[in-house]
Specification:
232 residues, alpha/beta, Rossmann fold, 8 helices
Length: 232
């Protein structure tokens, strides 16, 4: 059975960004982070698959092609749980705005596409708070694919979904894999009521929309660390 989302009951706010590779989410969350920091707000940033205790095991497993869909899912959840307990939760309790470049929804999309049962993955991450806001940077699948393929000299094995046997051609495998992830994200966006941001627009226009939404939904004054200049 699907688990019920855990509501954030801490003084802090949890903001997650999700979307396909090439959607511009990492650029936007970095700009949000700098804006909040320079405006004197208490902000903490965390990104997917960045735990120091798991990184080396993940690298070796990928290099030797040892990761099954289940072990892939479990190792990413271990990474997430470590960051959640050491960083995310303490910072929320300390009254920070926590910005997450990808959150548990990345696993719900990718792991289920690789064949893991949705209810099982959902249960793995049942300890984690539901974000106060989840920005979903959406754009046509073709646009996202073109952005990635134009900017990469070569696709990585797992990035292209080659472990799934979708196609012997890395580019075609990547297209199929990303197409399935796109469908999974669309379903998650409806179920969890993501805040959809059209990301096939100029960076500045997207950033202004995101900032305006943050001003509307969060009392930012509560998170001011020091008296500093306020950026518009």
């Amino acid at each position: 059975m699907p688990t019920q989302p855990v509501v954030n009951d801490t003084p802090g706010k949890l903001i997650a960004v999700e979307g396909l590779d090439g959607s511009g989410k990492s650029t936007q969350v970095y700009l949000i982070k700098r804006w909040l920091e320079l405006s004197g707000y208490k902000v903490f940033f965390t990104e997917w698959n960045s735990s120091s205790i798991v990184r080396e095991a993940t690298r070796k497993g990928k290099k030797r092609n040892l990761l099954t869909p289940t072990t892939f899912s479990l190792i990413h959840c271990t990474d997430f749980a470590d960051r959640y307990e050491r960083n995310i939760l303490p910072m929320l309790k300390a009254g920070f705005i926590v910005l997450a470049d990808r959150y548990k929804f990345t696993a719900l999309a990718r792991d289920t596409v690789r064949g893991c049962p949705l209810d099982w993955v959902d249960q793995l991450y049942s300890f984690a708070f539901q974000p106060d806001i989840t920005f979903y940077f959406s754009l046509p699948l073709r646009t996202a694919l073109d952005r990635i393929l134009a900017g990469r000299p070569a696709l990585k094995y797992h990035e292209a979904g080659m472990d799934m046997g979708l196609s012997p051609d890395p580019v075609e495998s990547f297209r199929i894999f990303q197409g399935r992830i796109h469908q999974a994200y669309e379903a998650l966006a409806r179920k969890h009521r993501f805040t959809r941001i059209r990301s096939d627009r100029p960076v500045e226009a997207i950033q202004e929309e995101v900032r305006e939404l943050l001003r509307e939904r969060i009392d930012l004054a509560q998170y001011r660390a020091v008296s500093r200049w306020i950026l518009p």
